[in-house]
Amino acid sequence: MTKVRVYELAKELNMSSKELIEKIGDLDFDISSHMSSIDEDEAELIKELLDEADRNNTEKKKGKNHTNMDIKKDMENKDKKDEFDALGEIQEVIEDDNTIIKIGQNIIVRDLADKLGVNASQIITKLIGLGVMANQNQNIDADTAAIVADEFGKTLVVEDEKSDVDDIFDLDHEDNPKDLRQRPPVVTVMGHVDHGKTSLLDAIRQTKVTVSEAGGITQHIGAYSVNVDDKKVVFLDTPGHEAFTSMRARGASITDIAILVVAADDGVMPQTIEAISHAKAAEVPIIVAINKIDKPTANIDRIKQELVENDLLPEDWGGETITVPVSARDKTGIDELLEMILLVAEMQELKANPNRNAVGTIVEAQLDKGMGPMATVLVQKGTLKVGDMVVSGTSSGRIRAMFDDKGKRVKKVGPSMPVVILGLSEVPNAGDLLYVADNEKIARNYAQRKKEQLREEQLKSRSKVSLEDLFEKIKEGEIKDLNIIIKSDVRGSMEALSQSLRKLDTEEVKINIIHGSVGGITESDIMLASASNAIVIGFNVRPNLNAIEVAKREEVDVRTYRVIYEAIEDIQSAVKGMLAPKIVEEVLGRAEVRATFRLPNGNTIAGIYVLNGKVTRNSKIRLLRDDIVIFEGAVSSLKRFKDDVREVLAGYESGIGLENYNDLKEGDMLEAYILKEVER
Ligand SMILES: Nc1nc2c(ncn2[C@@H]2O[C@H](COP(=O)(O)OP(=O)(O)OP(=O)(O)O)[C@@H](O)[C@H]2O)c(=O)[nH]1
């Protein structure tokens, strides 16, 4: 017997395959997709059944100007190319027709009564007739409401509120390539402390920006733009990779180009290396500004050599990294730097559609006593205008006024441009997106939904990678790369560890060492891990107190080891899903060594002050000097005044001795911990 494809039948019936599948869902046909096929007989039967359903429906709604079915029919009978117009017409019909009422997925009985122009008690009576017990303040679903509405001679249309709100999540919506226009690059300046980040930003501003106009606002707004010939370059005003990465950890990637400032008299330093890792992790191209070339001790070639050692091969040495010698003090090299920024931007083909509802990112926000919530927005797509209804996180409102980076009032701004907006209901979060909504209802709905989402998110934890659940995530295809940050006490062990870990690549998961350096685990390492969904491995080093707190908040998995082999074994087992039940440590607290005393027997006792948590007699102690682990061992004595004690709490002093260790020094940090067996 001839077979008919579902989509063919749908076409014959003037409906979409989806609609047809839905309609015959209850009948006993084996149909799952538009490509399923059915016998000709079955197709005939379906046609008959649908016809019948259609007739019933028409009869039921006789006497009404327009029923849902009529409206649909109207639409279906139009040519495909007219469909869009038809939708508009239908919308108008719905607006005009007073027999049609529109509701969301649910409605409160009282509201339904209002819409139907009847008493709530009449609705309640009808509901009882349907076997639904509801008082006037209770919600009923749209299906029930439709039956009740029908009884009062009205047709109910369910408006998809969700799609209204989802419309403004238009960020992922691909703009038509023909609507895209070139946009200015957004630049962040990074580098080691005192290498001249702020001076460089100031030098650029001073050479390129004219003074602010009176009457505007004059404070710095977190970003500014400069004109280079007839083009613009936008600089984010908070230098440093910490700000860059904390924005990225919140999901905001607004930087197109990173300027790495390296002082020509100092060279590549730890934070330079960190900045390189941070920019690379974000896949942002780096331009190196070799600063302070006015200094007699400046040595540009040495800097280039050091860049090579860090995988940045200068262009004039045959590589791809653009380097520009500058002096922020003398304002030399600034024009060349700006030209290079434009060149790199050109290669990136930075484009956005200026003719659409704007989407931007909050760069900075604060509460101004006089003006209320103020936020600097970097527009990413579209054009932001005064009077636009905007929403960012749980904050929404109509833009009352806007000021550009020169403090001048503006009416509208396009892609890549920073602008201060007034009119939000509350101070939004830096790093959050800001959307323009079509109307106030959508904006308020969105903000409300965001509030609910936030609550939900607070309840369930975010899914950051951890060794515990790594294998599950690999299996589910959620993770294809395991990003790792390594911190260690000496360079040699860091290199050995990264080499060994790289060899653990499997077909399912690739191991990337996104940053490795010498020193304790810092807040910056944790933020990089958070933004890049990485885990942090410390070898002979520990996180400082700040880092511990941030790791907890950002849910970053930090693992510390004293033996390289154990680190490798853990990662290997995690990749294979065989992380054995393990003994984990629980940190009890930290204490600082404030004084040391030598006993006549040669042993040393440290006078300590417990900073947080507690230190107990049976805890193990890790001795840290600059967050590097110097010694690990047991407590030999714990005393307050002359008495032995079981524990000492935060805020108290005591004397402590360590088993087999006497080289305690003032300023050392003692971390107390216990080992616990946990089930996995
Ligand atoms: N000679 C000379 N000194 C400079 C130059 N650029 C900056 N400096 C000096 O270097 C010091 C540090 O400059 P900043 O701009 O504060 O450096 P930074 O990188 O922003 O420092 P942090 O914000 O503390 O990380 C200041 O004393 C500047 O005056 C330069 O081109 N030449």
UniProtKB/TrEMBL annotation:
Residues that span the membrane, as ranges: none
Annotated keywords: Cytoplasm, GTP-binding, Initiation factor, Nucleotide-binding, Protein biosynthesis
GO CC annotation, single: cytosol
Binding site for GTP: 191-198, 237-241, 291-294
Stretch list, region G-domain: 185-333
Role noted for this protein: One of the essential components for the initiation of protein synthesis. Protects formylmethionyl-tRNA from spontaneous hydrolysis and promotes its binding to the 30S ribosomal subunits. Also involved in the hydrolysis of GTP during the formation of the 70S ribosomal complex.
Name of the molecule in the record: Translation initiation factor IF-2
